[in-house]
Amino acid sequence: MLIKDVSLLQSGALLKGRDILIEGSRISKIGRDLKDENKEETIDGHGKLAIPGLVNSHTHLAMTLFRGYADDMALMPWLTEKIWPLEAKLTPEDIRSGVKLGCLEMIRFGITCYNDMYYFMDETAAATKEMGLRAFLSGVLFDARPELMSEAEAFLKDWSGDDLIHPAVGPHAIYTCSEETLLSARDLAEKYDAMLHIHLSETNDEVEESIKKHGMSPVEYLDSLRFLSNRLVAAHCVWLSEKDITLLARRRVNVAHCPVSNLKLAAGIAPVVSMLKAGVNVCLGADGASSNNNLSPFEEMKTMAIVQKTACRRPDVMPAKEVWKVATENAYKAFGLDMGLREGALADLSLIDLKKPWFTPETNILSHLIYSIAGGVDTTIVNGRALMRGGVIPGEEEILEKAQAQFERLTS
To answer: CA 312: distance to chain centroid?
Structure first.
């Protein structure tokens, strides 16, 4: 595949007229006047900006089926009264529809990889692979369903070594998992050298309950179990003490910050600036579309930036350059992804149409990506395969119709 005459960002400056040669699953060369000896596929990049693939670092993709179903509720009533009763009715076919719907949305936003925790992981993996996205997938673990642990191990065995699907281990949270479950999850991840994924310190109630029950914060409690490490992605991390932040940094934990979901559920404002200053590797997630209600990484970037500026009462914190690093380099580090617009990197990237009002005038394209963009992803490529070209995703209409039918069945 050869992308001709595209623009790139380098140190914030726009470089025009570059070519990107992709061979197999990797970027082979970036330069001028390149030729594709195999003449397999040529994409016209004129008037477009190539950016590296974006990562949704925390989501529950099949919950895209629940978009708009239970708005304007606090987290625990939202879960217990609306979400969990509906989830009890989910079938593998529902999961396939929800995952494909979520993949459609992420492809349209230039997301090439996502980190998921949910049910029916074999169905999720098969649907994701069919759609062509890269993913870290963990079947959720609860004390209430002990059989999920053996299912998680089977999933790790079955999908190990896949080029797109990375099986992981996902204990839900400390308030739904006993010490025994948490330790078993930790050991399972270590046994298969897999990522761990958990919700952590999302609400003040969670922290207070942990202090009452364990005599320590959720972060301290997990540290006492030797659960914290660089293989862990901890979602939310809103309610943290200075000691918690120090522990997360020392143990090299990766934090998936989900600003829009946290704000919509009134969970609070995560201390992102303090975490970054302490050396915590913070990346961005959308959470589920049931609590967001979309999966836009650009909306997460802008929200993170403006909320942190307000929380710190300093307009100079979280500048566009730092926000972009959180969204790209930090995510690649968290998941060990060899990504970026450079020779030898995985061919995960997207092309954005620069001929849009929000990119005009051409003053600071990086700023426009964080604060201005309202759409315009034209092409998304994963592992050297174009999943969307010219805004067209094959089979999209059928996926949308199927998702609507599944939602109506669930809520009938």
So the answer is: 25
pLDDT confidence of 84, banded at 50, 70, 90?
Answer: confident
**Sign of the torsion formed by the C-alpha atoms of 282, 284, 285 and 286:** positive
Structure tokens given for 276: 């970054």
Write the DSSP string, 325-364: HHHTHHHHHHHT---SSSTTSB--EEEEE--SGGG-S-S-
Q: What is the pLDDT of residue 169?
A: 98
Q: Is the pLDDT of residue 63 over 90?
A: yes
CATH of the domain at 119: 3.20.20.140
Whole-model pTM? 0.96
The answer to whether residues 309 and 161 belong to one domain is yes
| Segments forming the whole domain that contains residue 202 | 54-335
Q: Determine the Cα–Cα distance for residues 300 and 286; give it in Å rounded to an integer.
A: 7
Residue 401 inside a domain? The answer is: no
**Terminal Cα distance for the chain, rounded:** 46
Q: Residue 134 carries which DSSP code?
A: E
Cα–Cα nearest to 206, from 234, 227, 169, 232: 234
Of 313, 327, 306, nearest in space to 372 by CA: 306
Cα 84 from Cα 261, distance rounded (Å): 18
Tell me how far apart the alpha carbons of residues 338 and 113 are, in angstroms, rounded to a whole number.
12
Mean per-residue pLDDT for 335-344?
A: 97
| Cα atoms in the 13 Å half-sphere on the side-chain side of 158 | 13
pLDDT mean across residues, the chain: 96
One-letter amino acid at 380 equals T
d(CA 272, CA 263): 14
Query: Is the domain of 26 the same as that of 58?
Result: no
Write down the residue that tokens 């609590």 correspond to. Answer: 291
